[in-house]
Fold:
Amino acid sequence: MIMNGKELSLKIKENLKKEVEKLDPKPSLVVIQVGEDPASSIYVNSKAKLAREIGYEFEHAKFDENVSEEELIQKIEYINSSDSINGVIVQLPIPKHLDANKIINKINPTKDIDGLTELNAGKLLTSKASLVSCTPKGIITLLKEYNVPFEGKHVVIVGRSNLVGKPLIGLCLNENATVTVCHSKTKDLAKVTKKADILIVAVGKAKLITADYVRKGAVVVDVGINRVDGKLYGDVDFESVSKKAKLITPVPGGVGPMTTISLMENVLVSYNEMKKRR
Amino acid sequence: MIMNGKELSLKIKENLKKEVEKLDPKPSLVVIQVGEDPASSIYVNSKAKLAREIGYEFEHAKFDENVSEEELIQKIEYINSSDSINGVIVQLPIPKHLDANKIINKINPTKDIDGLTELNAGKLLTSKASLVSCTPKGIITLLKEYNVPFEGKHVVIVGRSNLVGKPLIGLCLNENATVTVCHSKTKDLAKVTKKADILIVAVGKAKLITADYVRKGAVVVDVGINRVDGKLYGDVDFESVSKKAKLITPVPGGVGPMTTISLMENVLVSYNEMKKRR
Structure:
């Protein structure tokens, strides 16, 4: 009944470790962080820990929050040209004086382990991308682990962000699902979400999706992580929805660990493709 | 009741003519054709005629059907580097020994007036593309001419091709519509299409969509052009559906002329952007 992302991510981690043991030089990634946002620091540190446990080289490139666009782009161009770095991500959000879209698109798409460049978004939609955005990739991996069928099923995605909702469209179409995308302007959301065989929610509103929004027997994936009075809640009201859903992800322990482990998988994808090109 | 694409395309053509009169040098495009497919020849000739009437320079680059990938790519690279050519398209389909996806992605995205490169597909989905795939662009232009509202409306797209269905997703999300994509694997298609406020059909099956597939008062856009016993039919059964729809496009005279005129608009977009960069 519960799709345990934590457990699956640990299994994938062990497999990655075994593969990386055989490799020399080791795969290597850089995470660029700008400023001192405490949530970002927590995320970066947990990526660093996981990367090192797997056996990757990890560089935490930390910049002052007043860094210029030029300086960041110089760093990215250095990374792009380096033979020993396989992947890079820019930890979001970054300060408002920086154009995040412009900066991300300076990343060489072959090192774009977050799958956020326009080229990789386009590849994913129109054909196949080797580097797929981590949260969507993690969701598909988790659903497949639990043998959830896609073909001919109706996937309803709530949320249309470049990080989650939009890349999910291409992934689910590639799996031959019928796909609906809802968002803040959707009228009568519950009426649409109730059609879902698979409901994926990524909007950032605690407990938005109650049992009234879900068809009995649906598969429900909760991407939200909302902190309310010091406690973590998903976008789905787990208590009521878990009684109606066939399968559901918890928060925490569902999509979150799948996102981070998918990033680690992408490092290896990028490493292997760099090797092939040599 | 009928959305007249022919009429609107003529209006746009007159506006383009007036703009082009003032320009020196004239905007210029190249259409690459491989082989002698008669339908392709008809399409290329009608593009040539329209382009010249508007005042564009037009080159019909015709290659033998046995042309090598290298030779085609050389031509594209020449066009990419030319200061006097603003746009290029490869007339599809091309013979099977050629990798269409690879060839199209050799086009410099700033000259990709068909909007088919992966980079432009990604831009359209994740932010904004200046060069948008012609059929989807023409459809949006036509619907706006008839004051069809998008925000909060449910758009159902039948067909997931890179030319029509997929770019429509990004365009309709940018217009704040709720979007559903159906295709050959969709179960109980009529049940899904009946939810549509705006139904767009692009599958290439004559009269697939009958009145049973359409909600009363819906707006119906028919992208199909199917030749059966020498006669042209859309994907929509016009006779029965037109009685139920609030607005509908005819075949021919609906989406077809909007596609070609949108290509001509893209030439001017590309021309103006090249000028700005100089």
Observations:
- Chain A touches chain B at residues 101, 117-123, 125-127, 151-152, 154, 160, 162, 166, 169-170, 173, 176-183, 185-187, 192 (CB under 8 Å).
- Chain A has two domains: 24-110, 134-255.
- Strands of chain A lie at 28-34, 57-63, 87-90, 154-158, 178-182, 198-201, 219-222, 226-228, 231-233, 247-248.
- Residues 134-255 of chain A form a domain with the Rossmann fold fold (CATH 3.40.50.720).
